[in-house]
């Protein structure tokens, strides 16, 4: 049997010494399989000689002609200019770097063949620094037989080198050393070429290949590999899921008694969607293996209540529940809610965040360890080593897209209780586009709260340039005269909290001056929690008319009487964040407004984002648009990008494959070895999620 390509290190190839091997390793290429799955970014057409007369600026092409003259021009920049001519026209070759020998070799009368990108120069069409070689009219140097691949590369590794190496690897391929890992039975009536054909095709597409399709990534050979890659990712997540599922979990059946008391004291009935999702969660919790469920719901759809119900079921079953939020403010808000809801029922709620120090911290840690605290709310601090749970049954993560697969895993591990793993409920702050749910979150079951509590009125959104700031301030004045309350949100580059706070301070001062009759408050991330809470309380009880804030109010603020929000420089924020912010108004029954006050000029993308915000308040649509505009890496947050870096697939372009990927991945359970090898092929050894 032939060794498979994955077993042959690149050092086996001719011409690969230690230095080259290192460069290849930098590209993630260790063996011949890696090399063959290092696919071209694009192609050049060197298969035809193009008449000079038909060249257009931007064309990359081969031309051939007779040198008419080669001269050094002493213009703004010294350069060697060479005019060449074929039967159809003349053009210039321009060299900024050249040797005397080069100039002498370009003698009038000789023929040369060149390759390069045509552009418009000072005296007609030209190519800067073309590749060229001399051809003699009687010996016919052949043009390339295939389209020429252009590979992703690294410093000091030339395309020619990569081509030569892939050429050698392709020879192995012909000898059948690449295994088809999608079982034959699962390949029935699909429209893709076989794996070997697809790989060979993409490295050396034939002359008549549809370049347009190839460039768009829509060629069947590319789709074949994109499918396989998506499948490999999906399988890696399923593997992870299976691994977790093999562990036992405490059966949290609950008596229903506390739950009923909680619902009775709640000032509103659950929406239909809240009931349905809570029921799904409740059933999962009663099973003897860990729940892995994602709850999605738009801003304000009432996810916190669903989380509370899950926590109560754990408490009823005699086990602790932990609730983790990504920011201190959000965690604080949850802590307040949970305390208000649960302490009257006799359930002790503990609080833990990074800022909590000294005796208070020790007291909370002790309550968690002894099991006196039944529910624990906090930030990442919950998962530090010093935190020991007495009997954890459930972990709720309010995640805001901020935790990646690896984080999710380590949390799961952290909560281990002997042989048993805790159940896990993940809530997203904003909806996740479907394609991402089907890929990045494929290890989770998904529930959707697709209904808002009754009595909400959609927010009217207007987009205005900040040159009309004066007008906007008058609007704020008249809104406050009508006893409405207003948020004024200052944004700056997100990374600089200090600058952001400073901007908010300046703005608050300016507004106080301009609108002296209004009571103006200020909150920002650098204030002490107690100060922040105090200001928020004043705003809530209508002792303030106008609250100037940084984006900290994105989460955790709930003031139903606030019905106007001004957002400065909204073009700096992502759609999801704008949607979150805007979700702070429109919580009461009066009509609400959101003013997006941008700073001109807007980029096209900025304009498009603001238009989306004006046109819809549907979080699911906004999420889809966000993905379209910013791509999966950005939407998921940087920590998650590692998971979503595809070589071949593009989630957007190939989203139509995902349903099939899911089906095939499920069926591949019967071929565990193939599944394993597929994951290895595409994700490599380092990305083995199952072994975190
Ligand atoms: P999110 O899904 O954004 O986390 P929250 O859980 O913060 O939403 O809920 C938003 C607001 O809606 C809160 O003030 C909450 O008390 C209220 N709420 C939740 N469920 C209902 C309901 N069924 N009826 C009325 N108000 C509700
Ligand atoms: Mg929430």
- Determine the CATH superfamily of the domain at 459-616: P-loop containing nucleotide triphosphate hydrolases
Strand order in space, largest sheet: 11-12-10-13-14-9-15
Overall pLDDT: 88
Structural class by helix and strand composition: alpha/beta
Termini gap: 34 Å
Bound molecules: adenosine-5'-diphosphate, magnesium ion
Give the beta-strand count.
21
Beta-strand residue fraction: 15-25%
Envelope shape: globular
Rg of Cα set: 31 Å
Total helical segments: 23
And the CATH topology of the domain at 459-616? Answer: Rossmann fold
- The appropriate CATH architecture of the domain at 459-616 is 3-Layer(aba) Sandwich
* CATH top level class name of the domain at 459-616: Alpha Beta
Q: Helix content range of the residues, please? A: 25-40%
Uncertain regions: pLDDT < 50 for 5+ in a row?
638-642, 687-692
Largest sheet: 7 strands, parallel
Describe the protein.
The protein has 23 helices and 21 strands. With 692 residues, the protein is α/β, with parallel strands linked by helices. Among the domains are: 82 residues, no CATH class; 96 residues, OB fold (Dihydrolipoamide Acetyltransferase, E2P) (Beta Barrel); 158 residues, 3-Layer(aba) Sandwich (Rossmann fold), CATH 3.40.50. Strands 11-12-10-13-14-9-15 form a 7-stranded parallel β-sheet, with helices on both faces. Strand 2 and strand 3 form a beta hairpin. Helix 8 runs antiparallel to helix 10. The longest helix is centred in the middle third of the chain and has 27 residues. It is globular and about 100 Å long. The C terminus is likely disordered. The structure holds adenosine-5'-diphosphate (ADP) and magnesium ion (MG). Adenosine-5'-diphosphate (ADP) binds next to helix 10.
